[in-house]
Design goal:
Blueprint (H helix, E strand, L loop, with lengths): L1 E4 L1 H5 L9 H14 L3 E3 L7 H12 L5 E7 L2 H10 L3 E7 L2 H8 L3 H18 L2 E7 L6 H13 L4 E6 L6 H13 L4 E6 L6 H10 L4 E4 L13 H10 L9 H15 L20 H9 L26 H10 L6 H18 L5 H13 L1
Parallel strand pairs: 1-2, 1-8, 2-3, 3-4, 4-5, 5-6, 6-7, 7-8
The chain binds acetyl coenzyme *A (ACO) and 2-oxoglutaric acid (AKG).
Length: 370
């Protein structure tokens, strides 16, 4: 499967996000090191500055396909060609709603535009992906027509876009199974997160036969964002068993870089990257983890450049207190530990903050003394 990351295009379309040139270069390099297979890096039609940034990314000479996003118009395509790009996404709306809004319902004009740009991209020998904007609200018969046209004109891929993020994984599976069964073009998934299903829908599309998937780091993107790079990458490695070597330090570096450059704050429970996802507080979980490292973890913290911890909180049990006190060189009796537990719960509940090790030690010594 191909991860085509669009942090530098759809990711940057997130409200209030704007990367400067240095950030774009750093993100492109970090995406390569973290395991992206292809990058969509911008929109040449935006003008000279965007084009200069794209040229700087191309000058990095990263060993992966670099694409741009374009409306399926000669003007947009020419701007991409002038940047020296060898791969383009050529987007057309495919739903009636968007065809009405943008083309006054004129499907013929839309298809003529597509024909023209595909003809030129074939002449230029570049990789062409047809971006099917709003595919999930489109008639599948029309998508078939677009794909057949693309196939006949040498396009390489069709991007199925759940532009407003309204699909469920089961529906995606049906749509993509049908479109791949046509054997016209490889399918790329582009899924949005309006109902929190972007990654699930992207994965469902891959299971139904899609060959590639658009992602963005920390799920950045329009409105609620896109399928997240780190979630898709880890799913491919751990759930699909793909032979992917994930450089955990490179992944962590990328996430922190994009968090800073986009001025976003990642939630502490965000899959793969949230700072608390390897903090086990519940007593039964800590007890299990001490006996078996995989008891309550789907993958190790080391595999994503993070660390495990056992906070001393309201739900801690004796194994947690013993773990920390033993690490400090104490060997407490059971009755003392059981005397301490209700006190820990009370302190944490009252002040809504876990105990640090110093406080645990003080509580232990006080409990021992009385
Ligand atoms: C679903 C997506 O994410 S698609 C990607 C969207 N990304 C962006 O819009 C970010 C970058 N955009 C921009 O910088 C600007 O919008 C530009 C440079 C692309 C265009 O700017 P402007 O020329 O000022 O046009 P504006 O943004 O107001 O409107 C877009 C125009 O493109 C047309 N358009 C939209 N999609 C397509 C398409 N696939 N094919 C042809 N025309 C299209 C619209 O109908 C509209 O045309 P109109 O001006 O005749 O009404
Ligand atoms: O048309 C494309 O290639 C992608 C457009 C897009 O970003 C979307 O539909 O959400």
């Amino acid at each position: 499967m191909i991860i085509n990351d669009t942090t530098l295009r759809d990711g940057e379309q997130a409200p209030f996000v704007a990367f400067n040139t240095e950030e774009k270069i750093a993100i492109a390099s970090a995406l390569y090191l973290a395991g992206a297979d292809e990058l969509e890096v911008g929109i040449p039609a935006m003008g000279g500055k965007e084009q200069a940034d794209i040229k700087e990314i191309l000058a990095l000479d990263l060993p992966l396909r670099i694409m741009s996003w374009n409306r399926a118009t000669m003007r947009d395509l020419e701007a991409s060609l002038a940047c020296g790009l060898k791969a383009v996404d050529l987007s057309i709306p495919v739903s009636d709603i968007l065809i009405d809004a943008k083309f006054k319902g004129d499907k013929n004009r839309l298809l003529r535009n597509l024909e023209e740009v595909l003809h030129v991209s074939a002449q230029e020998g570049i990789f062409a992906c047809i971006g099917g904007e709003d595919s999930s609200r489109a008639d599948l018969g029309f998508i078939k027509e677009v794909m057949a046209l693309g196939h006949s004109l040498g396009a390489h891929r069709f991007r199925y876009c759940d532009t407003v993020g309204i699909m469920r994984p089961h529906q995606i599976f049906e749509h993509i199974s049908y479109l791949t069964s046509l054997n016209l073009l490889d399918i790329e998934m582009h899924t949005h997160n309006d109902f929190g299903m972007a990654t699930a829908n992207a994965i469902s599309g891959l299971e139904a036969g899609a060959k590639s998937v658009n992602t963005t780091v920390i799920g950045l993107g329009e409105r609620a964002g896109n399928a997240s790079f780190e979630q898709v990458l880890m799913s491919l490695a751990h759930l699909f068993g793909e032979q992917r070597t994930i450089d955990s330090d490179a992944l962590r570096h990328l996430v922190l870089l994009v968090e800073k450059a986009s001025k976003q704050t990642i939630s502490s429970t965000m899959p793969i990257v949230g700072k608390n996802i390897f903090s086990h507080e519940s007593g039964i979980h800590v007890n299990g983890m001490i006996k078996h490292e995989k008891a309550y973890e789907a993958f190790s913290p080391q595999s994503v450049g993070m660390k495990r911890s056992y906070p001393i909180g309201k739900h801690s049990g004796s194994a947690t207190l013993l773990f920390h006190l033993r690490a400090m060189g104490y060997e407490p009796e059971n009755d003392i530990i059981h005397k301490m537990l209700p006190q820990v719960r009370q302190i944490v509940t009252e002040r809504k903050k876990v105990l640090n090790k110093k406080e645990l030690k003080a509580l232990f010594l006080a409990s021992k003394a009385c």
